[in-house]
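Researcher: Next sequence.
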Amino acid sequence: MNLSYKIENEVCFINIAGALTGEEARNQRFSSYIKKRLDSDSLKAIALNLQETPLIDSFGIGIILLFFKICKERDVRLVMYQVNKDVNTTFDVARITHLIPIFDTKEEFVTTL
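Model: Next structure:
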């Protein structure tokens, strides 16, 4: 899994390329990567680009829910965009879509700011 980010107008756009599974997340220190973004920047939102994320497991869902909670406590909005069909189905089954907004594109999300 490769992670990269770009900050635009107090929004941190994080690109996740590769599977978001327990093994991958632990190896890449995914949680510390996002925590670092929250701690070092004054943000109003974090947007996860999942276009290149073909798979997510229960550990990955747990990490996203943890960051949803942390973001909510800090009054930072957490959203996801460009989620592929398989991952979106996983989010639907886990009822993540009721908590975290999912947008088709980055542009669609930006219009809601």
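Model: Residues 31 and 66 are 9 Å apart (CA to CA). Strands lie at 2-8, 11-17, 45-49, 77-81, 102-103.
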